[in-house]
Amino acid sequence: MRIAFRASALCLCLSVVAIQATSSQTPASSAAPGATPVATTAADDAAAKHAKRTACLKDAKAKKLLGADKTSFLKTCIAAP
Fold first, then answer.
1. Are 73 and 60 in contact (CB under 8 A)?
2. What are the residue ranges spanned by the domains of the chain?
3. How far is CA 4 from CA 1, 8, 14, 53, in A?
4. pTM as predicted
5. Separation between Cα atoms, residue 79 and residue 75, nearest integer Å
6. How does pLDDT run across 27-50, given as a tens digit for each residue?
7. What backbone torsions phi and psi does residue 39 show, to the nearest 5 degrees?
8. Could you identify which of 1, 25, 30, 40 might form a hypothetical disulfide with 44, taking C-beta atoms 3.0 to 4.6 angstroms apart as the criterion?
């Protein structure tokens, strides 16, 4: 009885893993050949924002901005495309 229960539990777990693996794959036919993926990962997005903020902060420091001037410069710099 215990062996049958363990075997059933194992089969159930493996089927859940198999279903998740097949549902997480994107269909290859929907993308155009040679096209780059449109979706970016959260890590890529965060890295790009960090790089942009770092560059804006360096520019503000080079211009010797302080206080409200620095804040307004950073807002416009970071918001720029």
1. yes
2. 42-81
3. 5, 6, 15, 58
4. 0.48
5. 6
6. 555 555 555 555 668 888 889 999
7. -75, 135
8. 40
